[in-house]
């Protein structure tokens, strides 16, 4: 699966250099490149990216402010700063920035940084599974294949792209296993994967019906959770 990258630098020459280096790396897809941090912010709200590579000192909004928004909203986006200014280094690592690269830099420096990130993501993906004990069997489910989970009575059904799996684990137990940003406890009876959401339809004063890509089954979401998703994901 390709890692999606956004690039921002107010100097065209530096942006072109960044683009040339990053686009040469396999498993990378450049989603946007721009000379404006404000435009990058708009793109982040519209498009899903995994990595933002940004200059720091830019007119109006800075790359640091952009990283601060990503950090404060708990967005699952790794940030690499590429900058001529060393003064932000300490603050950058307080924002859990992946790397801080000083200009001018050899292309190998940015390639190494990206490859470290790719390796880190691959090791995280290996852990992206649920292990469900069912009588004498252990059922292994890829987290990324889970569309939504429903609690009904004393059992729980996990709906994936290919099957429905019954378990006696509670939603609280499964919520503890699904700490990835993609999963939201949308309602007392449901956990949803926002990547599969197609539509919210008003059902009652404080709740909506959720429809998904690739499945006819539906879930529920509260009005508060719809607002939370709008503010933090879109």
SSE arrangement:
Elements: E1 3-8, H1 12-22, E2 28-34, H2 37-46, E3 51-54, H3 63-72, E4 78-83, H4 89-94, E5 99-102, H5 107-126, E6 129-134, E7 137-142, E8 146-152, E9 155-160, E10 164-167, H6 171-177, E11 183-187, E12 190-193, E13 197-204, E14 207-212, E15 215-222, H7 223-232
Parallel strand pairs: 1-2, 1-3, 3-4, 4-5
Antiparallel strand pairs: 6-7, 8-9, 8-12, 9-10, 11-12, 13-14, 14-15
Describe the fold and architecture.
- With 234 residues, the protein is of the alpha/beta class.
- It has seven helices and 15 strands.
- The strands form four sheets. The chain has a five-stranded parallel sheet, with helices on both faces. It has a five-stranded antiparallel sheet with strand order 10-9-8-12-11, with no helix packed on it. Strands 13-14-15 form a three-stranded antiparallel sheet.
- A hairpin with a 2-residue loop joins strand 14 and strand 15.
- The chain starts with a strand and ends with a helix.
Features:
single chain; 234 residues; alpha/beta; five-stranded parallel beta sheet; five-stranded antiparallel beta sheet
Could you list the spans in which at least 5 consecutive residues all have pLDDT below 50? none
- The coarse overall form would be elongated
Largest sheet: 5 strands, parallel
The number of helical runs is 7
Proportion of strand residues: 35-45%
Mean pLDDT: 89
Class of secondary structure makeup: alpha/beta
Q: Give the termini distance in whole angstroms.
A: 22 Å
User: What is the helix content?
Assistant: 25-40%
Measured on Cα atoms, how large is the radius of gyration? 20 Å
What's the SSE pattern?
A: EHEHEHEHEHEEEEEHEEEEEH
Strand order of the largest sheet: 2-1-3-4-5
- Number of E strands: 15
């Amino acid at each position: 699966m390709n890692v999606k990258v956004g690039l921002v630098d107010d100097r065209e020459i530096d942006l072109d250099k960044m683009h040339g280096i990053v686009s040469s790396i396999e498993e990378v897809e450049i989603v946007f490149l721009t000379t404006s941090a404000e435009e990058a912010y708009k793109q982040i709200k519209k498009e899903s990216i995994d990595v933002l590579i940004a200059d720091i000192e830019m007119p109006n909004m800075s790359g640091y402010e952009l990283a601060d928004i990503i950090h404060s909203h708990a967005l699952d986006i790794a940030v690499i700063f590429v900058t001529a200014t060393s003064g932000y280094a300490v603050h950058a690592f307080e924002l859990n920035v992946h790397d801080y690269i000083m200009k001018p830099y050899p292309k190998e420096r940015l390639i190494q940084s990206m490859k470290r990130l790719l390796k880190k993501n691959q090791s995280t993906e290996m852990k992206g599974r649920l292990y469900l004990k069912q009588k004498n069997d252990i059922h292994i489910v890829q987290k990324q294949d889970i569309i939504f989970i429903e609690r009904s009575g004393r059992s729980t059904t996990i709906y994936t792209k290919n099957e429905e799996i019954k378990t006696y684990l509670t939603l609280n137990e499964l919520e503890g296993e699904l700490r990835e940003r993609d999963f939201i406890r949308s309602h007392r009876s449901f956990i949803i994967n926002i990547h599969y959401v197609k539509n919210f339809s008003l059902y009652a004063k404080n709740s909506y019906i959720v429809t998904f890509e690739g499945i006819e089954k539906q879930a529920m979401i509260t009005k508060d959770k719809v607002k939370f998703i709008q503010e933090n994901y879109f």
